[in-house]
Amino acid sequence: MPPTRRAELLMPAGSLSRLKTALLYGADAVYAGTPDLSLRTQSEFSLEQLQEGIAFAHAMGKRIYLTLNLFAHNRDIEKLPRFIETIRRLAPDGLIVADPGVFQFVREHAPELELHVSTQANVVSWLGVEHWRRLGASLCVLAREISFEELTEIRRRCPDIKLETFVHGAMCMTYSGRCLLSNYMAERGSNQGSCAHSCRWKYQLKVRAPSGGTELLEITDENFEQYQFFLEEEFRPGELYPIEEDSRGSYILNSRDLCLMPKLDQYLALGIDSLKVEGRNKNEYYVAIVARAYRQAIDAYYADPSQWDPEPYMQELDTTRSRGFTLGFHEGRLTNLAHDYGSGQSVSAFEFAGFIRQWETDAVVFEVRNRLVPGDIVEFLVPGSSDVVRVRLYDFVNAATGEHHETFSAGHGRAIRIPLSALHNEDPDVLRERLPVLTVGRKRSVLNEEQARSLKLNQSSRDVELGLVDASSLLRFKEPGGNNAPRMPPKLGMDGCCGLGCNGCLIFWNEPKFARAREKLAAVGVGRRLDSRV
Question: ∠118-124-130 over CA atoms, to 5°?
């Protein structure tokens, strides 16, 4: 039987449009903040936009939490009274706090506000959770560093307070929020919401020459096998820790991204109250994909726990850019698979094409976020469903000027007008309901050889971590040229038709070759993947 506690899906909202997108694609709640007095220094919210966002969430019967999760210096405390009065007028569903002094201040001056303890407070035990419960917290966001075994004990010992845990998003290279690297390298406080992500930067190896000078040691295809470099700790003589660098540099600090989707059923069965996604600076596409995948996964689990399978939702998450996924501290400790030592880039076979900005009588206005070329297929992600509506585009009409373009690039709100005639296999009235304003669209990315290699390495690393394949499968990625980029199919002509029945794919709808496929598609619906044997 499903647990009596039903988990909330909590998504980040770095701007008003991302807030609305998250709720449109299935989030139960969002968390947001203003740059002042929170760890949201890059927040794009004004006070008026926060008011609009809260009204929007409440009109949908959903929740919004605001952040006050900095550790306050004396200069910050002077601003607290005015800030709290503003928060009281906004009337959010909760306030996320980390500093014990700030927590007590809010308790005394705004006792009606529900208080949540931030992950910045680094609560890692049932004793810490119980401490905050006694102080009046209604929810505790647990640190990313706790294991599922520890979480299980916390849930058992603390039944009278809501628990929240991160299930998806970026990880710190060290203890969450306590990294000093950003402070040192960029004078940006990681625990003040200004992290420069110095752990993702490319570093090069330098050696001290006999002359005393410091020189860059260039590793080339000709000499890379001649060198090996190690660290030796003072009290561990003879224990050599290798440092590896290739032509791309060294990424010894680069953590993969957290993704607990493969273990999500365990968290739902345990009765965790809130499942949190990181990514306040991510775009609308990330918000839409992640919210939609976790929404469907959560609902599928509650509908039938015994038949729950994470794979279809992982396939959806793979369409977002990531550094590769890891289970983080789920098993209790990080392994070498939690970091990517060879690359710092985020990759995916898909990218953000744009979103529907407006509906007109006979067309949709589609704001473009990545360059479109003839033959590109845009997949509209239907909110509240796993369905997509595909359209193949050959011509691009500037929504502002009416000019026709052979290709169309993004920038400064540039949009194209897609006539409903291009979506000729869809009922226009039904389509308006299925694809409301803010519906997100994606398209295939063209990957170079290095990106394709990183993508396959990320997927293989995840399979090893999950115990699906042996670790030896990773060795092939060390071989130069051992993995070639996949060939992208042509976008035009007979060879470019995938047989999925995209709107605008003239070949599919007219060629005798696809007659049987058209019959089958009529039964299953446009956009559903057909059996390749048809």
Answer: 80
